[in-house]
Amino acid sequence: xxRTIARFRTLFILLGLVLALTDPLHGIGVLSIVxxxxxxxxxxxxxxxxxxxxxxxxxxxxxxxxxxVPVNSPADRVPSHGTHELGQTYAIDLVHVPSxxxxxxRRWPLASRPDAFSAFGRDVLAPADxxxxxxxxxxxxxxxxxxxxxxxxxxxxxxxxxxxxxxMTLSAGRFVVxxxxxxxxxxxxxxxxxxxxxxxxxxRKGDRVRAGDVLGEVGNxxxxxxxxxxxxxxxxxxPLAAAGLPFAFPYESDGRTRTGVPGSRAPFTAP
Length: 271
Hints:
- The chain is an alpha+beta fold.
- Helix content is about 20%, strand content about 25%.
- It has 2 domains: about 1-45, no CATH class; about 60-270, Glucose Permease (Domain IIA) (Distorted Sandwich), CATH 2.70.70.10.
- Strands 2, 3, 5, 6, 7, 8, 10, 11 and 14 form a 9-stranded antiparallel sheet that branches.
- The chain is globular and about 60 Å long.
């Protein structure tokens, strides 16, 4: 029962905001109190999974090619991003690092153009045959936020401005995920590709794609510190009521070919 209720965490907060702001000039009334309770309940439900426990990973091909470094990987913790919101329980962030190591922050410069990063403009590939159920690519690619001042700005911008704007516009996190594509892979599995480059989408709603087809390019739109691909699976086409699904894909690491999910900060090569 609690997993079913958890699917509607965002709706709890939306309804709570409406009630809490009802007739604010006359003080806090019953509706306002109920609204505050609903907001609190919705916030708690962000940490409650909404899917079926023990489901086997869906095996796909990698959504990228080349050498990458995972960040916030479900191989290390679940939920990987600290929340079950928007079906991202098993989400992974992929940063293109052709050689060497990846550093999450730096002192200088405070911000860089997105094309200064090797991930920017890299192809994003369909991990299986599917149908495009959502595609949006008009949001701008902003400068990086991977300096210490930039990270602080990102926290405020992402957690306050972008989250509230998404809630107020009922946009299912559109201002958080940025430009994105959602594929229907069949059998109740939907793949999400977020933070794509503005104007790079090669597909539109209703298109059928084959595994390996180019969907678009890695960008820096939405709530990001630097260009990377955010990828996850969910069990419904609409993120507001979706639960995350585990996945696995073939990759090479330490001279071995594996099938699974690489851990955070562990470089891998996708064939």
